[in-house]
UniProtKB/TrEMBL annotation:
One BP term from GO: protein N-linked glycosylation
Pathway connected to this protein: Protein modification; protein glycosylation
Coiled-coil region(s): none
Similarity field: Belongs to the glycosyltransferase 2 family.
UniProt name for this protein: Dolichyl-phosphate beta-glucosyltransferase
Species the sequence originates in: Pandion haliaetus
GO MF assignments: dolichyl-phosphate beta-glucosyltransferase activity
Recorded GO CC terms: endoplasmic reticulum membrane
Keywords on record: Endoplasmic reticulum, Glycosyltransferase, Membrane, Signal-anchor, Transferase, Transmembrane, Transmembrane helix
InterPro entries associated with the record: DPG_synthase, Glyco_trans_2-like, Nucleotide-diphossugar_trans
Catalytic activity: a di-trans,poly-cis-dolichyl phosphate + UDP-alpha-D-glucose = a di-trans,poly-cis-dolichyl beta-D-glucosyl phosphate + UDP
Alphabetized Pfam families for the sequence: Glycos_transf_2
Amino acid sequence: ICVIAHVTARKMPTLHRHEEDKFFINAEGRKESVPSIHDPPTRELSVVVPSYNEEDRLPLMMDEALNYLEKRQKQDPLFTYEVIVVDDGSKDQTTKVAMKYCKKYGSDKVRVLSLVKNRGKGGAVRMGVFSSRGKKILMADADGATKFEDIEKVEGGLKRLQPWPNQMAISCGSRAHLEKDSIAKRSYFRTLLMYGFHFLVWFLCVKEIRDTQCGFKLLTREAALRTFSTLHIERW
């Protein structure tokens, strides 16, 4: 496996954008060029929501997230945000559902990036990150598995990592403390697969992070640029 990985590896993966992926549709229905992560940040927080066939679950997540963000902005007028919904080539009405929030809150706060071709979660998150304007960038799953207000916990984790080397830091959400509850809802086979996967991740990759699969991660802009510029695998 190591030999094959070495032979087939490329030094730096290329990010291919279809022509349609270079634009988003604003609240008025017009095309606008997507910003670039290489530009200076103009928002405090960008929330990237990768979505594939999420027309049913997305509204619950968006309602919770936007209610929290709007409330926070009223308390602190200096706090600015944007939510980027990345429709990863869905076959349902995900884009249409997301556009309702764009029209309600304005395309300066909610943007919908509809990808021509399904890339997988990694590719969808990267496209959203590379189109973001925030000083900090949050990955958040469309299924609403994590309470959005828990962002304050990952923000606290990010602060505790200071000083950040070269302004780079990542704070990962974790549901490891809920593992016993999740096991009760799974079959024995799925539980076995879960433990097997956790062992492989622990043995081959990272030992300090108990829950690598929680889709709630907060990155500084510099860390996001470095991380997703070197992403080789887009599917998952």
